[in-house]
Design brief:
The chain has about 300 residues and is of the alpha/beta class. It contains six helices and five strands. It has two domains: about 60 residues, Orthogonal Bundle (Helix Hairpins); about 230 residues, ATP synthase, F1 complex, gamma subunit (Pyruvate Kinase, Chain: A, domain 1), CATH 3.40.1380.
Length: about 300
């Protein structure tokens, strides 16, 4: 049995840890509230932007914009992995990393073995893991979620579009956690480029039957609208991805810290029980020693 001093030290350590996890839970809850508000505001705009792009694209020859064109052959793929900058958020980062590994090693395994799969990591955790395991990480965007701004989403989307237009890659895949509830996230794999709006009907706010395409009179021409709309669409969709991942991260961290706080509470109960038993055993031993000594003195006196 551990000594009283050791048990007291463990109790003190667990209490300190419990204070930290409780504080982290409260911070994550406050951040989650703001993140939820932002994603709920951004989703309708992003979905409507995608819907509008599809409607206009059905009226024109999509070959006018290379970002709408699917390449005849898939020679090189770029995978964008969106993780957090910090841990202590349960399986949030692990799930994204596992999914990304599956996509790179299995779905595009042949291209990867030929050295034709590149990676861009948004968030420090993913970048550290994939660089450590010798994946081709060509760029990293750390600290994005510390101060999440639309300009950063536009910068990332411009970087991806430039790589696609220069034919350095033939397809861009984005893997991230989509916010569902505080307790759950949806792991998503989406084709970011080329833009294929028809593949995203299930993501529209109305997940029922496809709406009939409305008839519009376009001013200026549909071609010019397409060319103006495409870069904005990419920036908005990347902004939505970052907001989704941020909200999912805060929800996962709040849940993980709540579980850690409850575990610390249970551990404290067990440690206090062990402490009381050890103290009782020590007191009993001292009483027996006193009684035994008194009995010995009594017998020697006789």
């Amino acid at each position: 049995m551990a000594s009283l001093r050791e048990i007291r030290g463990r109790i003190k350590g667990v209490k300190s840890t419990q204070q930290i996890t409780r504080a982290m839970k409260m911070v994550a809850a406050a951040k989650l509230r703001r993140s939820q508000d932002r994603i709920f505001q951004a989703r309708p705009y992003a979905y409507k932007m995608r819907d509008l792009l599809e409607t206009v694209a059905n009226k024109v020859d999509t070959s006018i914009n290379p970002l709408l064109n699917t390449r005849a052959s898939l020679r090189r793929v770029l995978v964008v992995c969106v993780t957090a900058d910090r841990g202590l958020c349960g399986a949030f980062n692990t799930n994204v990393i596992k999914k990304t590994k599956q996509v790179v090693d299995v779905e595009f395994g042949e291209l990867n073995r030929a050295g034709n799969v590149d990676m861009i990591c948004i968030g420090r955790i993913g970048a550290e893991y994939f660089r450590k395991n010798h994946y081709r990480v060509i760029e990293n965007f750390p600290g994005v979620f510390g101060r999440l701004q639309f300009d950063m989403a536009a910068l990332i989307s411009d970087t991806l579009a430039t790589m696609y237009l220069s034919e350095n890659v033939d397809k861009v895949i984005v893997i991230y956690n989509e916010f569902k509830t505080v307790l759950a996230q949806n792991l998503r794999e989406e084709t970011f480029l080329p833009i294929t709006p028809a593949a995203h009907h299930d993501d529209l706010a109305h997940k029922g039957e496809m709406k009939a395409i409305e008839e519009y009179i376009y001013e200026p021409s549909p071609e010019r609208i397409i060319n103006e709309l495409v870069p904005r669409h990419l920036a908005v969709q990347m902004w939505r991805v970052l907001l989704e991942s941020n909200a999912a991260e805060q929800g996962a961290r709040m849940t993980a810290m709540d579980a850690a706080t409850e575990n610390a509470k249970e551990l404290l109960r067990l440690l206090n029980l062990s402490y009381n038993r050890a103290r009782q055993a020590a007191i009993t031993k001292e009483i027996l020693e006193i009684v035994g000594g008194a009995e010995a003195l009594k017998q020697s006196a006789e």
